[in-house]
Write a structure and sequence with these properties.
With 72 residues, the chain is mostly helical. The protein is built from four helices and no strands. It is elongated. The two termini are 19 Å apart.
Length: 72
Amino acid sequence: MDHVPPRVLYPACLLLWSLATVFMGIIGGFVGLIALRLLVGVFEAPAYPINNRVATAWFPERERASVIGFSR
């Protein structure tokens, strides 16, 4: 995650997470639902480290606690 800029990685993860979530409403098989649920978790996992990275890089130290609290 440190090698890819947050402006690229965050939207990509958000788009893929959204697609996996949409497909969970379409797919009816048990195995497909389990696979999509795993993908939702995989694509959601980078969100918290990216949020912290953005908060520490883009905001001054006195505003970081508010930004991190708001992004959760």
